[in-house]
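Two folds, back to back.
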Amino acid sequence: MTHRVRGAFGRLAAAAFATVLASALFAGSLAAQGSTGKIEGTVTDQAGVPIANAQVFIVGTSYGALTSDKGYYFINNVPAGEITLRAQFIGYAPTEKTGVRVLAGQ
């Protein structure tokens, strides 16, 4: 093989490898989207007043968020299935909600 043919073959092989790698990464991200969901809500006190900066997390995991000044929170990429949510803030008793169902893609 001449130098020119080897160079062209190398570029073609590199392009093919890059295409396969990109396809695999894209397919992996689509698969991950299909098995996770999102949790969102609002944390309020007994009078219905939003609680800012409350901690909301999924028990037994590292997934969590802080509420906004309006008590709103969201947690992305939560594995699908049933979970237990816990909200806590200084001065209030922690509250848990069990049996929260997370649907994939929602």
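---
second:
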Amino acid sequence: MTLSILLTMLFGLMELALALYSYNFISEAAREATRYAIVRGSSCSGFGSACPAAASDVQNYVVGLGYPGLDSSLLTVSTTWPAGDNNPGHTVQVKVSYQFPLTIPFIPNRTINMSSTSQMTIQQ
């Protein structure tokens, strides 16, 4: 009985460490996606087909970051331009959400909703 309690605590600690790693990724992914969008505004040039960036381009960029251990099907990226356009001087806001599956032995499976939002001013 003591072993099962010890193992549950050990696996729980490992799951919480993975949750912290996932939240760190989500925060970093939101910032990186916002940086991606601010240099791909309405007056950008030299970036090929992703110029200017659309919401789908930002989504594909975040999924393409490929952080290990995260299921990209549980990842949601929402990109908005609060001023309604992507002209330089206006802002872009990116919200990255992740449904972290929490699986600890002897405890019912749950999902932790994590999200991070980043907003920056479009440069070009």
